[in-house]
Specification:
The complex is a heterodimer of chains A (267) and B (267). Chain A has a domain at 1-81 and 159-170 and 187-267: Rossmann fold, CATH 3.40.50.300. Chain A is built from ten helices and ten strands. Chain A has helices at residues 42-49, 72-79, 97-108, 113-126, 142-154, 172-189, 200-206, 224-229, 233-239, 248-265; strands at 4-13, 16-26, 31-36, 57-62, 65-66, 82-85, 160-164, 192-196, 209-214, 217-222. Chain A starts with a strand and ends with a helix. Chain B has one domain (2-266). Helices cover 87% and strands 0% of the residues of chain B. In chain B, helix 3 packs parallel to helix 6, helix 4 (91-130) runs antiparallel to helix 6 and helix 6 (144-183) packs across helix 7 (187-197). The longest helix of chain B has 40 residues, at 91-130. Classes of the chains: A alpha/beta (267), B mainly alpha (267). At the A-B interface, helix 2 and helix 3 of A face helix 5 of B. Bound molecules: adenosine-5'-triphosphate and magnesium ion. Adenosine-5'-triphosphate (ATP) is lined by residues 13, 18, 36, 38-44, 87 of chain A.
């Protein structure tokens, strides 16, 4: 049984379709990587899976609960099994790194403060920030914030880890370490992960399954080998890093021509 | 003409919509406020509320006191210049005492707090909205209403009445200084006159008013913050409109309360 299942999901912003009848199933204990161009709706899909926005139509079920229709209490119950790192990190600026990580532990568990300190230290150490616990988010570099967000996502030892571009802005070494960390969590704790990334190497390193998003739909979903063998032109373009098709150039030229004509017609 | 009607109609509708959303949020927050109470609630929320109380109350104290002293002098002098012509200078005491207890104490405080704290609420919550901190709270299974809003409400409901008392005290003191310098009336004697002219009814009315003002300020500030969509410029706009709207609503509410108390007092 899939742990997350998205059915016919449609999302609109101001009448503009961003997701259009999207279906996705995520199996427990697997790492699913979501690939797709910038602006293709990856973060939008994650926001739906986190229950942060209501879809136009369709449904999202997590662990058997339809989060688009359930009560707030049920939604919060589901959310306690999620660990999320936002694309923008979204650390609490008024709290130090330690407190950012400790927040859920302090409020959702009855652990003793000394135990919480230890857990927080471990989570920060895992992303290489053990010495920076006292700093506030403003005092961190972009990559450090990203890592801190991952540490915060891990705080409650979640069943499902959702990471939005965790390795964007990280140097290759740290990015590779992060990949190993995700693989380690899967191997040791059978964690389920949904990871958005633009790094193809990283995607093919960690993924059990890859889903390619394009124009609000999933173009291809499958194992690494299935995706590598996929012949869809868009998938090939993405995987082979081919620049956008030159059909855009004539469009630009005609646009400029019309612009010049309209300027000439004015006076 | 039709255009004018249309504009007026649309404005009215949008204002009604605003008041409607004020109401929805008010009930949600009042329910959430239980969590911020000491003993029965969550100690983290209570601690946040105390922190807010200090920020709203203690930090505003010098400013409110100074405003009250200045207004006390103004009221006493303006009153004296008229009343002296009728040889009724001693009525200045009633004017200042009753005026400050019933009216100026709560109103001055409300205006100062809406400028200092109403705008701060809007800015803080608006920034949290823009940086996705509110979303992060939600996916960590916290209720933003309970986590962010409730402590602010509780703090305002405690701090604003206290500040109103302080403002009334300083205003009346300034009146006493004026009387001392203009008629050599001793301060102790002045205070005794003041105490005979203030009735319990005045104090109760003042407390009701300042509780209402506190609700308006916290409420408008938080709602403006939550309504922020977009970037930092939207935060700036929400801060301005929090101050403008809450000051306006405070004065409207003051007019309504004063009318009610006027007729209740006559009956
Ligand atoms: N709050 C919003 N209001 C209006 N449009 C939005 C909003 N959020 C996203 N969009 C639109 O939805 C589309 C998808 O955005 P999304 O953030 O999901 O892209 P993405 O795939 O995560 O891109 P990236 O890789 O750059 O992060 C974009 O065209 C964007 O303009
Ligand atoms: Mg994104």
């Amino acid at each position: 049984m899939s742990i997350i299942s998205v059915r016919d999901l449609a999302v609109e912003y101001d009448g503009r379709r961003v997701l259009d009848g999207l279906n996705l199933d995520i199996e427990p204990g697997q790492i699913t990587v979501l690939l797709g161009g910038s602006g293709s709706g990856k973060s939008t899909l994650l926001r739906q899976i986190l229950g942060l926005e209501h879809p136009k139509s369709g449904s999202v079920s997590i662990k058997g609960t339809d989060i688009t229709r359930c009560s707030q209490a049920d939604l919060n119950k589901v959310r306690r099994s999620l660990g999320v790192a936002f694309q923008s990190a979204a650390l609490f600026n008024s709290l130090s790194l330690e407190d950012n990580v400790a927040l859920t532990l302090r409020e959702h568990t009855a652990l003793a403060p000394s135990i919480i300190d230890l857990i927080v230290w471990m989570k920060l150490a895992v992303v290489g920030l053990a010495d920076f616990g006292k700093l506030h988010p403003q005092e961190l570099s972009g990559g450090m914030k990203k890592r801190a967000a991952v540490a915060r996502a891990l705080a409650m030892d979640p069943e499902i880890l959702v990471l939005d571009e965790p390795s964007a802005g990280l140097d290759p070494i740290v990015a590779a370490e992060l990949d190993e960390l995700i693989l380690f969590l899967k191997g040791t704790f059978q964690i389920t992960a949904l990871v958005v990334t633009h790094e193809l190497d990283s995607a093919f390193r960690i993924a059990d399954r890859i889903a390619m998003l394009f124009d609000g739909r999933l173009l291809a979903v499958g194992t690494k080998d299935e995706i590598r063998a996929n012949q869809h032109p868009r998938v090939r373009q993405f995987l082979d890093r081919v620049p956008g098709s030159p059909v855009h150039m004539p469009a630009l030229a005609s646009y400029l021509e019309r612009y010049v004509q309209s300027k000439e017609a004015k006076p | 003409m039709a255009n004018l009607l249309e504009i007026a109609g649309r404005e009215t509708l949008s204002q009604l919509d605003y008041v409607g959303s004020l109401n929805i949020q008010l009930w949600a927050t009042l329910r959430g406020m239980r969590a911020a109470l000491p003993l029965v609630g969550n100690r983290h929320r209570w601690r946040a509320a105390v922190h807010q109380m200090l920020e709203i109350g203690v930090d505003a104290l010098p400013m409110v006191a100074l405003m009250a002293v200045c207004s006390g002098f103004i009221l006493a002098m303006q009153g004296a210049s008229e009343l002296r012509r009728f040889g009724a200078l001693h009525y200045v005491i009633d004017l200042v005492a009753v005026g400050f207890t019933r009216e100026l104490g709560p109103l001055l405080t409300a205006i100062a707090v809406s400028g200092r704290s109403g705008s701060a609420f809007a800015a803080e919550i608006g920034t949290m909205k823009v940086t996705e901190e509110i979303d992060a709270l939600k996916v960590m299974a916290f209720e933003p209403v309970e986590f962010v809003l409730a402590p602010k409400y509780l703090a305002a409901l405690v701090a604003v009445p206290c500040l109103s008392i302080v403002a009334a005290f300083f205003g009346i003191l300034a009146g006493g200084l004026f009387m001392f310098f203009s008629t050599h009336l001793g301060l102790l004697l002045y205070l005794r006159y003041v105490l005979t002219s203030i009735e319990l009814r005045d104090v109760v009315a003042a407390m009701i008013k300042s509780l209402a003002f506190a609700t308006i300020i916290a409420h408008v500030g938080c709602l403006e913050g939550l309504r922020v969509r977009g970037g930092p410029d939207a935060v700036g706009r929400s801060t301005t409109s929090a101050v403008v709207r809450s000051t306006f609503l405070v004065i409207v509410a003051d007019a309504i309360f004063t009318t009610i108390f006027y007729f209740v007092g006559k009956a």
